[in-house]
């Protein structure tokens, strides 16, 4: 079976600077892979190559075995790729439910366009999007937030809503860029439990960029460590954590 996501020898060059230089990694269906490394290692640039926000200078991106290296971001979304952002990006001036409906509606619409004969009326499509949004809120035990305007949410809840919005796309691959950043220890522990629940229930594969080893260690099946744009180490979390190169480059203080 094809991997859910595969990067083959990705390179991204800005002028004379190689921000990413030969990164390969595989996320199998249902697997959670952590992408860690010091500040400036190239994690977010790699992430943006996966979503289609950043063109690669070299290498290939495959989603479910299909080469999407040249596919635009929206085409990748339609193929089951969803993301959250390092800095929360919700649609201001809209409620939580409206934020979710935008995602769910776009997704339904893109799918429907493929088969124009089954194009439902606009009202019906909106009802479907609302149903989907409410179902995801219930699944995450957040139905009380439906009518709250998103800019009034504390960061912990805003991060949950971003996750909810990504889940409205029924992703097969979920990309999370530092989902626990800005959360206090209790919120972080809850978020880890929630991601474990998402994984166990929905079975979507995840690529998780995260500095907090308290998030990475319990969730990840496999960890890839980047440094200076390259892969420094790759393997099971416990093995990677004990790797001398990794400890020297990055983990020393956090793990001690
Ligand atoms: N558009 C750009 N033009 C030039 N350099 C860039 C650009 N985007 C990123 N970089 C550089 O590429 C390197 C990798 O950046 P990236 O954002 O991927 O790091 P990161 O691993 O996500 O770090 P952090 O943990 O701080 O989020 C950094 O040196 C950054 O300054
Ligand atoms: Mg980053």
Task: Give structural notes.
By secondary structure, this protein is an alpha/beta fold. It has two domains: 1-80 and 171-256, P-loop containing nucleotide triphosphate hydrolases (Rossmann fold), CATH 3.40.50.300; 92-169. Helices cover 42% and strands 23% of the residues. Helix 3 packs across helix 4 (122-139) and helix 6 runs parallel beside helix 7. The protein has helices at 43-51, 73-78, 96-114, 122-139, 155-167, 185-202, 213-219, 237-242, 244-255, and strands at residues 5-14, 17-27, 32-36, 58-63, 66-67, 81-84, 173-177, 205-209, 222-227, 230-235. The site of adenosine-5'-triphosphate has 10 residues, from helix 1.
Report the β-strand fraction as a percent range: 15-25%
Proportion of residues in helical segments? 40-55%
The H-level CATH homologous superfamily of the largest domain, spelled out, is P-loop containing nucleotide triphosphate hydrolases
CATH architecture of the largest domain: 3-Layer(aba) Sandwich
* Broad shape: globular
Mean pLDDT over the full residue set: 89
CATH class of the largest domain: Alpha Beta
* Oligomer type: single chain
- Runs with pLDDT <50, length 5+? 110-115, 252-256
Q: Tally the beta strands.
A: 10
Radius of gyration: 18 Å
First-residue to last-residue Cα separation? 39 Å
Number of domains: 2
In DSSP terms (H or I, runs of 4 or more residues), the helix count works out at: 9
Spatial strand sequence of the major β-sheet = 6-7-8-3-9-10
- Secondary structure class reads alpha/beta
Give the distinct bound molecules. adenosine-5'-triphosphate, magnesium ion
**SSE ordering:** EEEHEEHEHHHEHEHEEHH
| CATH topology group of the largest domain | Rossmann fold
Q: Please give the largest β-sheet.
A: 6 strands, mixed
